[in-house]
Amino acid sequence: MSIVGHLINGENRTDATRHQDIFNPSTGQVSNQLAIAGKATVEEAIEAANAAFPAWRATPPAKRARVMFRFKELLEQHADKIITLIGEEHGKISHDAQGELQRGIESVEYACGAPELLKGEHSRNVGPSIDSWSEFQPLGVVAGITPFNFPAMVPLWMYPMAIVCGNTFILKPSERDPSSTLFIAQLLEEAGLPPGVLNVVNGDKEAVDTLLHSPKIQAVSFVGSTPIAEYIYATASANGKRCQALGGAKNHAIVLPDADMDNAVNQLLGAAFGSSGERCMALSVAVTVGNAAGDALVAKMKQAMTGLKVGAHNDSSNDFGPVITKQHQEKVVGYINSAEEDGAKIVVDGRNPKIAGFSEGFFVGGTLIDNVTPEMISYKEEIFGPVLQVVRVESMQEAMNLIDAHEYGNGTCVFTRDGEAARYFSDHIQVGMVGINVPLPVPVAYHSFGGWKRSLFGDLHAYGPDSVRFYTKRKTITQRWPSTGVREGAEFAFPS
Amino acid sequence: MSIVGHLINGENRTDATRHQDIFNPSTGQVSNQLAIAGKATVEEAIEAANAAFPAWRATPPAKRARVMFRFKELLEQHADKIITLIGEEHGKISHDAQGELQRGIESVEYACGAPELLKGEHSRNVGPSIDSWSEFQPLGVVAGITPFNFPAMVPLWMYPMAIVCGNTFILKPSERDPSSTLFIAQLLEEAGLPPGVLNVVNGDKEAVDTLLHSPKIQAVSFVGSTPIAEYIYATASANGKRCQALGGAKNHAIVLPDADMDNAVNQLLGAAFGSSGERCMALSVAVTVGNAAGDALVAKMKQAMTGLKVGAHNDSSNDFGPVITKQHQEKVVGYINSAEEDGAKIVVDGRNPKIAGFSEGFFVGGTLIDNVTPEMISYKEEIFGPVLQVVRVESMQEAMNLIDAHEYGNGTCVFTRDGEAARYFSDHIQVGMVGINVPLPVPVAYHSFGGWKRSLFGDLHAYGPDSVRFYTKRKTITQRWPSTGVREGAEFAFPS
Amino acid sequence: MSIVGHLINGENRTDATRHQDIFNPSTGQVSNQLAIAGKATVEEAIEAANAAFPAWRATPPAKRARVMFRFKELLEQHADKIITLIGEEHGKISHDAQGELQRGIESVEYACGAPELLKGEHSRNVGPSIDSWSEFQPLGVVAGITPFNFPAMVPLWMYPMAIVCGNTFILKPSERDPSSTLFIAQLLEEAGLPPGVLNVVNGDKEAVDTLLHSPKIQAVSFVGSTPIAEYIYATASANGKRCQALGGAKNHAIVLPDADMDNAVNQLLGAAFGSSGERCMALSVAVTVGNAAGDALVAKMKQAMTGLKVGAHNDSSNDFGPVITKQHQEKVVGYINSAEEDGAKIVVDGRNPKIAGFSEGFFVGGTLIDNVTPEMISYKEEIFGPVLQVVRVESMQEAMNLIDAHEYGNGTCVFTRDGEAARYFSDHIQVGMVGINVPLPVPVAYHSFGGWKRSLFGDLHAYGPDSVRFYTKRKTITQRWPSTGVREGAEFAFPS
Amino acid sequence: MSIVGHLINGENRTDATRHQDIFNPSTGQVSNQLAIAGKATVEEAIEAANAAFPAWRATPPAKRARVMFRFKELLEQHADKIITLIGEEHGKISHDAQGELQRGIESVEYACGAPELLKGEHSRNVGPSIDSWSEFQPLGVVAGITPFNFPAMVPLWMYPMAIVCGNTFILKPSERDPSSTLFIAQLLEEAGLPPGVLNVVNGDKEAVDTLLHSPKIQAVSFVGSTPIAEYIYATASANGKRCQALGGAKNHAIVLPDADMDNAVNQLLGAAFGSSGERCMALSVAVTVGNAAGDALVAKMKQAMTGLKVGAHNDSSNDFGPVITKQHQEKVVGYINSAEEDGAKIVVDGRNPKIAGFSEGFFVGGTLIDNVTPEMISYKEEIFGPVLQVVRVESMQEAMNLIDAHEYGNGTCVFTRDGEAARYFSDHIQVGMVGINVPLPVPVAYHSFGGWKRSLFGDLHAYGPDSVRFYTKRKTITQRWPSTGVREGAEFAFPS
């Protein structure tokens, strides 16, 4: 058993005010100890980032980008180790961890384009012989706080862009599965990043609050649950920082009668149960329009789920693995129980899966619940488990009203062949990421990720073009050179 | 004497919980009464804006832009009336009010380009036969809260862009000089804007707080002083809204020894005393490098100021007019007194200007103070009056350190002929708007306006390109059409 | 009868080497005389444009744009006169001329956004303390040569953008209907354009060749037939100029079995017969997939065409007017005859329309031809008349192969409800402008217009974003300021 | 001695109609034989490229970009071999070849950003429920014809962008030094490029004309001398292709009296003599303003040139190597002779350099000529050798007039400290690439490269943003879905 610590100013550190167990969710056993950083350690990291800023800011963007090119190479070379680290602490099956890593690498690829992305706008002759242009300069030290469910990908949404824009960074990862996160950060050092530009501190609320209140932290990116997102957003803002805080989700798919039902079922299998449903883009509610569509979907899904295989992370024939903790396992089962008590029909029951050789693992099997209604607690809240609920309605408008009435607005999808239905849906639905026959409409790395309503607080989305604007501040220069011997008249009026 | 009221749902209204005097600062007399809206009136405006939103959102951007084209025509036709209204309540001389209006019109011109500005990004084949694109959709109802010093221009920074992006708007103008603001809003109705899309409510903190706490308000733009900006930003953010809040300033010009001194003096005259210094971009501190430059600047400025003419708004031969209130006049004089007490030298004293025929007006004459030091209260705080202070230093770096140490970072300028000095300054100075021999480096309408440090809270600047992003939310659509008869395999792994 | 002449250096001129009749196509009578400019007159215009260039180039873009804002106002004020002038010389019905003018105005609206569109790209620190940026500077004198079918719109595609980018312009309009073109150019002068910036010369091949060979002409935009477009492109290029030359078209609509057939018929009526089919975007071939679709389309179209009304331009109840000349009338009828001889079926025959009171007008009635095959001359060539031909095929792929095999690739359309069919079509079809249920997919003014294959020669399309790049040349500046006293080492290696 | 051949459809080939000697310019000896492809071989390459197009076009841009990421890695791994190959056939010293390769790699880095660069523009609601967007689709097979002086870099300006945009490519490199070019192309295959996407054919005019006349070639990029550029541009255009053809140069630096003279001399040493002056961006004329500046420059330059070392490519202590051929050596010496005969003063004479051990090499030493005038043949023509000529004038305007009067307009530079002089120069000079104290203002890879006047034919510049537009064609889609049961009225008027 080893101690997972911090990366501060280029050094691996294990300072701790206390330690906390890290589990292997497949076995249910403690695998490592996490060093919990106190305020002093976090402040040291902030100091290191602050000290590293001037030189990094002055490094030309093309040279900063070249570190990202090398980082991409190293991530690809060390993919197997990263996938293993994710699996051991998160429980993700290797094909799924590979997908997560690939998405993270795509954000690094996008960061390699920094010289293009950082271009300002130049205007000749805004007035006679007066020019004006904008520069997008780095902010200084910025912080990222990331969740357990994508220990590789979500940090890679943040710091490659922040750093390539010229900032220095403090990352506070999840305390559940920090090892892959820390290892990846070490690879970036190996790629040639100067010490202090990226710092990783493991910790809890004390670490978070230190970041939120430090006058040296200019901006905060957060991904996690909505209540914490709200706290982060309000606190960072009250301290004068810019902030983007991504919260929870309850993503619905509408299944229209003209949908290719086999395709829809196949897509939903992955979208609902992949990664045990522990994704903020998991598709957890299917809204069927008309009972024929509802019956067909439930029947085909029930049949398809007979092939679903839940099990330990290290067997790649499994479709998905355990959930993150014992507590979370109980919470997910509790939601299934509540649905049953509220009158929904448990079509496929994953509450007591038997996983040979892993009896202590935190497993929940794939669960399908029919006849769910909007009043049920299992509908209102985010379950974050391998549970697909079916709500039956009579019209597409009724389905859209359901989605718009929900507090979250992260992702959604419609299954149809009809161009008009798809266009009406995508135009009007109050959700930030929309799929047309794409159940997990996660934007590619060169677009940006963000939900609406209570799924995101702030105005700029994560990664992609919006992240360039988030991690830079605009400076506008206006320039006129005095011509020799020409004496200009005073201008009292407002310049026009 | 008439009552200045509100514009709600296309109707002129005078609801009031109470009334407040509006003064003509040139005469010192009460000229009009302002109707102060209570919570119910503000909520009625919000309801009107909310009801107008769906139809306005569905109006094609090109048609929305055509309303702005007509608005521009009307603003030009009614320029004289607007200038008079500004002069009567703010005290601005006509040439200055004309400049303000012109700058406001330029923001309307920019809004006319909405169809271009609202384009999303389209990617063919983000995967095989999968496309993805972004749309920048309106937020809903948004609010603007604006200051007294530019009653025409600052509101025009906000609502033309917000509205042309498809939002509906509530404007809460300054209670000091609301008449030109209201008249301009009426012109936009005349230009063809549907009722309820733009609403104006006059009021005080009750009105502001109603806006900040209403769940129907999606975003808030504010321009005013820093303490209020902080309050607005923290409160709006705590309520989950996006917010941009622009605060105070203390804008320094560095005068290098190689500067064209006559040109610098002429530029500074307008930048320091124009509009009585009541501009967030007023140039209020000159930092001279080397005593030769300091002596030359003070001597030439003193000489130039003999021609400065302060007086009533309606005499266009005046250079600038009164300050906004009796209280503010006393505050400005208090800062001059404090500088004198702190040991600075009052080179030109504007404390008791005699304005024939306007003995009750709120006048302060142009004032030049030499030998100011950073410890003085008159240096630390924003005076917002016709006062230019000179600080003498020995090097450009010392001058830059002064600027970077100040809490504000709105605008700044360097006077020089030297390319290297200008580039070093513009690159490194911690200020958002930088002039090279341009003392009021207000970005043109097709760039964006914003300071750094405690001069702006938020991540997106006012007007120009940033305002498009501020007033819209990003939606990303990912689309794949199922091909007939092709049955795709389930995808459990994360999509890559 | 009056003489239609030129606009050179702000003066109306009637220089002529000879004169040519202008007809009113509705009456078949000569209405005006056109002054044909010889080489000397064209060279005078070029000189005027060349002399006007330096001052216009130095005028800030925002001021240039303001001339366009005023131009738009004047176009709207004088719409009735313009519509009448178009009708008298082209034969277009007022509602159609109004549509043409509106599209032209939209290009002027786009030109009003010049300050935004002309922004260059600025990069800080391309190397240590080295900056680089691009400017898009005007070319100098550029020329436009325009066709008869849109005497208002096509010139407005060209010169507003060319001029707002800082160029000066020579327009050589069609000799058939020059009056509206000339009148509109005069309005731009009235809007405040300095003399010489826009010049109009009427003429023939001598005028065109003078433009193509003048070393002072930097670029040529052309819209007309493909053989002339090829000549213009090759000749301008051989003279070292940049050139964009738009030629002919043969636009097909595919009607799939799932199309909303009533909608398709209604759309095709306007697209095939509007403006007598004298549009390069006219929809002249309907390709039906499956005989059921073919039968239904022909039957419904035949029925719908009973309400089609052809007649003189001044009766707004008419659907369309005469063709442009007696010769063209005979040519169109010749194509109908040839189709009949080749075995096609004339379902609706417009060869001898009786128009009461206009027996000498150049009329052809709406004509529907079924069972057309690709070998027929009427299929291969552009008819440019009110003739819709139906080709019947068995599959969508067969329909697409037909389109891709045709020499032209201007516009095309598919009628369907199916998302997959639409996406496959729009992705793969070798045509530059594609409609999904939009039979005239003319891009709006803020996109760009251009076909593929032999419908356009050059790399940049007309109007919209591409026109900014066409009418400007890129200048890239790289800047490093020497720091005092620092002596840099010689660099023999290639800079990196 | 080996045979340097072709790369066609992924295979190395040595087809030849005849063979031609390749020399090592340092030794003057034949080192290899070049296989000269005839028409049939070129057509085979075109067929291969044409066959590879559909699958490559359908490959998602992000996957195409990943081949470029791997290509960059391989270029860096094999840098030493590439540098050696360049040196052996071109004569470039290793530090210079390294610089060339690095610049080429930067264009590959830019190509890695293809997913971002290929984004189209999406407009929601161009009309009610009508959307429109643009796609930038590949052209098909495109060709590049490249010069001897940058055998690695100039091809890398072209095909990485062309290929990553989805095109397939035929490269015809210089016959003087093809080995590094061919080796690099093989690395791209190794990086995973499918066979046929990139093809290299070595040849002469027969190969070039086959490319220019093939209907399957959609576009041609050329870099070389101006007479050939004109031929390529006119011929490609007459065949309906798009073309960009870059030609010769005569780049002037203006040395103002306030310049940092030591810095200017150091910069000019590298810019005039680096790579033996065989660069289209070589700085070959220094224009001094005022005799003091002239005298100082010539004196300091003469002194500095005593340290200049010319010699064989494989000794990295040399500053520059031989010129490319015996014939070119004689031509350069001829220009020096003519200048002497025309009355110029040979200050430093490089006509007979003695290089120990390389008596047969094609060497010319660094040469400085003073008192050159615009009438001299050595001033008018491009020398392309290590010769710096000094022209003395009395004013900056006179210097600028000289530059503007020259037929070429590729690059230029001003040495000054004065902001106003720099801005006036960069704004007004009729040259496409401008340096402020940067004597070789080659734009970085994320800007674009191109001269003005007779230095470039076409409208789009090489590499960077312009190359994306050059290597793609715009498609604009307009989409409306018919709503169920709604029957729309016919539209005869032009749509508005």
UniProtKB/TrEMBL annotation, chains A, B, C, D:
Instruction: Provide the Aldehyde dehydrogenase domain boundaries.
Output: 17-477
Xref: PROSITE patterns: ALDEHYDE_DEHYDR_CYS (PS00070)
On whether Kinase is a keyword of this UniProt record, the answer is: no
Is Lyase a UniProt keyword of this protein? no
Named from the GO MF annotations, one term is:
methylmalonate-semialdehyde dehydrogenase (acylating, NAD) activity
One Pfam short name: Aldedh
Task: Give the EC number(s) listed in the UniProt record.
Answer: 1.2.1.27
The record, for CDD domains, names:
ALDH_F6_MMSDH
- Enumerate the UniProt keywords alphabetically: NAD, Oxidoreductase
Signal peptide location in the record? none
Q: Name one GO biological process term.
A: thymine catabolic process
Q: Which PANTHER family match?
A: MALONATE-SEMIALDEHYDE DEHYDROGENASE (PTHR43866)
Protein name per the record: methylmalonate-semialdehyde dehydrogenase (CoA acylating)
What is the source species? Colwellia psychrerythraea (strain 34H / ATCC BAA-681)
Gene name in the database record? mmsA4
